Amino acid sequence: MHKVLIDCDPGIDDALAITLAHGSPSLEIVGITTVGGNVDLHLTTANALALREFLDLGDVPITPGSAGALLRERIHAARVHGASGLADVILPEPVRTVADGHAADFIIDTLRAAPGEITLVAVGPLTNVALAVRREPRIVEWARSLVIMGGSYTRGNTTPAAEFNIHADPEAAAIVFGAGWQVTMVPLDVTLTALVTSEVLRRMENLGRLSDLVVPCCRYYGVVTAVGGPAIHDACAVAYVIDPSLMTVVPAVVEVETLGRHTAGMTVTDFNVGDRTPNALVATSIDVPRFWDLVVEAFGRVGERLG
Ligand code: BDR
Ligand code: CA
Known about the structure:
Layout: E1 2-8, H1 12-22, E2 27-34, H2 41-54, E3 62-64, H3 78-81, H4 103-113, E4 118-122, H5 127-135, H6 139-142, E5 145-149, H7 164-168, H8 170-177, E6 183-186, H9 188-191, H10 198-203, H11 211-221, H12 233-242, E7 247-256, E8 267-270, E9 280-286, H13 288-306
Parallel strand pairs: 1-2, 1-4, 2-3, 4-5, 5-6, 6-9
Antiparallel strand pairs: 7-8, 7-9
Helix pairs in contact: 1-12, 1-13, 4-5, 5-8
Bound molecules: beta-D-ribofuranose (BDR) and calcium ion.
């Protein structure tokens, strides 16, 4: 089993990413940490708690972390994800609560306990991961890998230059990209090619109780048509961990812009690495039909378990 620790801000596509991980026979979720991002930390945490019980994740610990960016005013994306962060879905009130401690310490302790075994999958602003790597720089050696959904090399979605997760905390992202590990970056450029079309949505409609979560989430996230629909960005990062052959990845040197008036949060991606050590492996394409097969099959397994 490939162990994953998911740092997230659920968030519609975060919820779908957790569902994908849970439904994948090759992955084991060893922990979920939450960060303020799409909505406030208390909501991303409440959503993670509700998802743990709705999806029957067992005793996976959920540890909240940073409410806001290291240095900047907090931004959010409630307009995209809904006021609660989970579209218009109302999940049953969870019974169990969060684990003690801060997400950054949970990340450190969990990676320390199993060096080389756990992939950290970060699909929200990188604040918790930056704090963790600053508190304990050896996590870059202990992590099996770090896979993020974030950044872009052609366009942004929050500003013309910047993708949301990086724009929300550029200083944290700069710390993470500069920490000495090779960050696998699944950028917007790639996630925006895998869209929930009406055909994809149809395949999610007969999943029993799970359909009550995934179908309204997808519909809320964007207009679904025969040829287009929303991208479920964060699920792409989990899909890469499950099956790296789904994507082409290219070594690059990525610098995060923290100073630009119009470009803060831009991931300046140089594929001309030359004799420098690439600090990133950047996904540049995804096999879309295989991605959806993977997602729908994993959702099917979860759906069957939930009834
Ligand atoms: C990313 O931003 C968030 O709104 C999503 O959850 C995803 O992680 C896409 O830019
Ligand atoms: Ca997210």
